[in-house]
From TrEMBL:
A GO MF term: metal ion binding
Stored InterPro entries: Fe-S_cluster_ET
Requisite cofactors: [3Fe-4S] cluster
Pfam families documented for this protein: Fer4_13
Gene3D superfamilies named among the record's database cross-references: 3.30.70.20
Name recorded for this polypeptide: Ferredoxin
Domain of life: Bacteria
Keywords: 3Fe-4S, Electron transport, Iron, Iron-sulfur, Metal-binding, Transport
Length: 71
């Protein structure tokens, strides 16, 4: 049985254009490589309190590099 409310975040670092919006918006989930600015996924299964922020970051990313899966 699936766990209701589970949310999984994934990132495509090859699509990331290092804008940094995700890290600025939800720094508990996303960081940035200090050299390249490319996204670093800090928490692929964030707690429910961060789910809205995860969805927002996926919407805000200008490169479509963030995917949120809910099941
Ligand atoms: S918002 Fe998108 S393009 Fe910008 S750092 Fe995050 S994943 Fe990369």
């Amino acid at each position: 049985m699936s766990d209701p409310g589970r949310l999984t975040v994934s990132v495509d670092t090859t699509a990331c254009c290092a804008m940094g919006r995700c890290a600025a918006t939800e720094p508990d989930i996303f960081g940035q490589d200090p050299d390249t600015g490319t996204v670093v996924l800090l928490d692929p299964t964030p707690p429910p309190a961060l789910h809205e922020g995860a969805r927002l970051c996926a919407d805000l990313c200008p490169c479509g590099a963030i995917t949120v899966t809910e099941n």
